[in-house]
Amino acid sequence: MAAASKTTTNRKEIQQWVEERGGNPAKVKGTEVLRIDYPGYSGEDTLEQISWEEFFETFEASDLAFLYQEETKDGELSRFSKLVSREKEKGSAASSR
Description:
Largest sheet: 4 strands, mixed
Radius of gyration: 13 Å
Order of helices and strands: EHEEEHEEHE
Number of domains: 1
């Protein structure tokens, strides 16, 4: 069974999903490019943690949506997420605001 992805712009939903998986809001050092940082993974030298307030300010200013997956196809907790343009997601039936 394929694992379904969802899209949201709901701040509480995004923050809860990320924190449940041990992640933190971050940006690529020296840029305004947002990322989710999972300690112990490859972003250690390239990412800097930021506050949720700063994350969501940039998130809104960049008109982004959060694409994510609750579980893998094997039923395991998924860490898959991606920040995407809201413009591209407007027609998606999975979008929620």
